[in-house]
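FAQ: What does the model actually see?

It sees only this:
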Amino acid sequence: MSIHKFNYNKTFRLENGKRLKGLQIAYHTYGRLNTRKDNVVWVCHALTANSDVFDWWPGLFGERDLFNPQEHFIICANIIGSHYGTTNPLTTNPSTDQPYYLSFPQFSIRDLVAAHELLAQHLGIDKIKVLIGGSLGGQQAMEWAIIHPDRIENLVLLATNAQHSPWGVAFNESQRLAISADRTFYANKPNGGAKGLKVARSIALLSYRTYETYGATQLESSDEKIDDFRASSYQNYQGEKLVKRFNAYSYWFLSKAMDAHNVGRGRDGAEKALQHIRAKTLVIGITSDILFPLDEQKYLAKHIRNAKFAAINSFYGHDGFLIETKQISKEIAAFLKQSYPNRLDRTLQPLI
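And it is asked to produce this:
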């Protein structure tokens, strides 16, 4: 599927009062909107993912999967600040004719939602049959269901929380410290902070997986080895892989948006905020997730009216929400009272 662009030519006001002059949103669609306009599935993507959900969430989204273009009109839009076509720190600032870099205005999860609300209006989408997101994507979906409760019919939240935890903030700050220790981050060039970003990704991976995951996948076969360990090579490879497809400035601002996530801000606390959600809600947690532990999803299910909670057993930690698509598909199909499609299992490459 080809990528589409929506240009909002008016000034976009952010939650903190700052403004973006002109806003471009990159997005993908799959399938067709039916005549009743009641088959919309909207996907909110995670930290370093993109709008091509068929690429990074196969097994849940695809031609033969639960969410397929034969039955659904699927929309996934790239978020503000990200690297894949929506206005971000590498975009040219119309006031200076130079890229924003670190002068890009700080934004919040609510700003990401406000931008996608504009896209929904542009596409003539009044109702969303299913709104789904995991991790940072779940934070967005939750905010949207609070801000516009009558627009969302079914809400699926995976491996996410009502407020980003001190533990999560500490991981993100450690990653930003790594990026800022790379002096090129302040050089105002597209690949600035690349070495720091590599280290940041290495830190992040430790929160995405678990002790058991590394013990099984990176264990040495020889007792004699004293250097060049498999785990070391893996960390280097994953860091370099992100550097090739992302930029340090986007990562910096997106991690700050995640840190500031708190549905209770300005709403008398998280519990009252969650009570605004009217959508039929399924909250899914991953048993081995150390970044967004199960207690955070149980909290959501407790305080969202009539929400259902499901725990997915996984070996893969936080990445399980992207990998365990067979289990997740069955839970969502039962929740939506849809038939679960027969398909072959696939080996997935997490992209979060």
